[in-house]
Design goal:
This protein is mostly beta strands and 112 residues long. The chain contains no helices and eleven strands.
């Protein structure tokens, strides 16, 4: 059974730099492109970061570039999202995704 378990997030101070993780199980992680989406109230989930199976080709939506870094550990089967110097506008629920599978989502709230 495919599984994506997201950890990290919560309440973050402005300027903080938390890291989200998404642990994968039940499929050949090393063969799959992994992605991160975010969702804010009243809006659809939007893709903003993805990474190739071997990790050499990260890609970002323009609006998120330079804020976040996606990387992966193909030994531990984990994809990470390093979030840098956060401000309130990135408050959202964050999901990892591959194929037809979604992680459970984690709320990141940037507030003092």
């Amino acid at each position: 059974q495919m599984q994506l378990v997201v950890a990290g997030g919560g309440l973050v101070q402005p300027g903080g730099s938390p890291r989200l993780s998404c642990a994968a199980a039940g499929f050949m992680f090393i063969a799959e492109r992994m992605t991160w989406y975010r969702q804010t109230p009243g809006k659809e989930r939007e893709l903003f970061a993805s990474i190739s199976p071997n990790g050499d080709m990260p890609d970002y939506a323009v609006f998120m570039r330079a804020r976040f870094t996606i990387c992966r550990d193909n030994v531990k089967n984990i994809v990470y999202l390093q979030m840098n110097n956060l401000s309130a506008e990135v408050t959202a629920v964050y999901f990892c995704h591959t194929g037809a599978n979604w992680g459970q989502g984690t709320q990141v709230t940037v507030s003092s």
